Amino acid sequence: MILNILLIVFAYLLGSIPTGLLLSKALAGKDPRQQGSRNIGATNVMRTAGKTLGAVTLIGDVLKGLIPVVIALWLGREQTWVAGVGVAAFLGHCFSIYLRFKGGKGVATALGIFLPLAPLAVFFDILFFAGVVVACRIVSVGSILGAVAMPILIWLVGYPLPYVILGICVAALIIYRHKENIQRLMAGGENKFLGKS
Question: Quick one: pLDDT band at residue 17, thresholds 50, 70, 90?
Fold first, then answer.
């Protein structure tokens, strides 16, 4: 039990590291919270600090979800606890203790969480996400629909129930974190291609 709790705390603290903010300030002298969509995620970092830093932010945010989940699996934790570790990492990214419980929208961190848990579902979801973005040229639409599709794909492929529930929880929070994007979409004001994610 103590090890499980320590893993959850570790996952939250790791997930809370604001990768995009740290990289943008250190290497470009910019604060993504003051520019573009004011989000610390890879899309806004790419827009405000360049493609390279955007790509590195994406990798860093993925690793924040991937690393604690892989450790939990390697230590042989039960599926429910592994899912809990994933939730903790995701909540850390969205509500960072280092940023007064503010943070990003969680798409990349969610990708990192599910890569070791449901790789086949992730593969199909990436294809779905890419198809949506190519069709409508708005990243936020792909992110929202991809989040909705993920728990369905996890269930269809046959992964364990705790991971399906994890997918539902993550999808709900991703949709909530995209509420401003949804408002802009409804008003017809969401930017094309990169959107305001």
Answer: very high
